């Protein structure tokens, strides 16, 4: 094989690699986002009225600006790590902050709250549902397909998950 043929083979391999790489990047970017839902501990009074929780109140809960529910229970927000791909929607629509800023907010919000942290990180959707179910006053954001009977789904601004106009709709 001549040097010219070798260089041509390398150029073709590079071209194929670039095309494959671009395909993967575009497919990932265009993949449908997950539909998320706000879930609550079954003993919480939050969302028990028809409208659920307002967007403004949800933002306060997520940013640890609300420490107690109207019934006196301490508020705990359970979420996946801010670096998790499914949290991109939450960072944009609820926090309006970067991943680093949310990480800082978590540390600051939990300072001094050893017995009942303001924000709890869950390693998986199943872990998140279990934590919400076991912590009185807890709410969390989870993939709609991970919801089970141990938690209650809360309306956001009068809308349920999968309804048009729902805040945490993935598309």
Explain what the structure shows.
With 171 residues, the chain is an alpha/beta fold. The protein has 2 domains: 1-31; 36-154, D-Maltodextrin-Binding Protein, domain 2 (3-Layer(aba) Sandwich). The chain has helices at 3-30, 55-62, 88-95, 99-110, 125-134; strands at 36-41, 76-79, 119-121, 138-143, 151-154. A 5-stranded mixed sheet has the order 3-2-4-1-5. The protein is globular. It starts with a helix and ends in a 17-residue tail after the last strand.
Query: How do the strands of the widest beta sheet line up side by side?
Result: 3-2-4-1-5
End-to-end Cα distance, whole Å, is 52 Å
Question: Could you say which overall geometry the principal axes of the C-alpha atoms support?
Answer: globular
Which strand-content bin applies to the residues? Answer: 5-15%
Count of β-strands = 5
The quaternary state of the protein chains shown equals single chain
Predict the CATH topology of the largest domain.
Answer: D-Maltodextrin-Binding Protein, domain 2
Over the alpha carbons, how many angstroms does the gyration radius reach? 21 Å
CATH-level-2 architecture of the largest domain: 3-Layer(aba) Sandwich
Overall pLDDT confidence: 85
In DSSP terms, counting alpha (H) and pi (I) runs of 4 or more, how many helices?
5
- Secondary-structure element string: HEHEHHEHEE
CATH class of the largest domain: Alpha Beta
Total number of distinct structural domains: 2
Low-confidence stretches: 20-32
Helix and strand content put the structural class at alpha/beta
| Major beta-sheet overview | 5 strands, mixed
CATH superfamily of the largest domain: Periplasmic binding protein-like II
Helix content: 25-40%
């Amino acid at each position: 094989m001549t040097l010219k043929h070798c260089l041509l083979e390398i150029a073709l391999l590079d071209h194929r690699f670039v095309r494959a790489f671009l395909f993967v990047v575009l497919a990932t970017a265009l993949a449908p986002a997950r539909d998320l839902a706000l879930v609550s501990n079954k003993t919480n009074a939050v969302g028990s009225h028809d409208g659920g929780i307002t967007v403004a109140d949800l933002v306060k809960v997520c940013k640890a600006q609300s420490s107690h529910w109207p019934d006196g229970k301490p508020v705990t927000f359970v979420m996946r790590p801010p670096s998790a791909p499914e949290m991109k929607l939450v960072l944009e629509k609820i926090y309006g902050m970067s991943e680093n800023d949310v990480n800082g907010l978590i540390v600051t919000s939990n300072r001094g709250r050893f017995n009942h942290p303001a924000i709890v990180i869950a390693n998986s959707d199943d872990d998140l549902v279990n934590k919400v179910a076991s912590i009185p006053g807890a709410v969390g954001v989870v993939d709609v397909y991970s919801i089970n009977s141990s938690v209650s789904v809360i309306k956001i601004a009068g809308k349920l998950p999968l309804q048009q106009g729902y805040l945490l709709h993935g598309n």
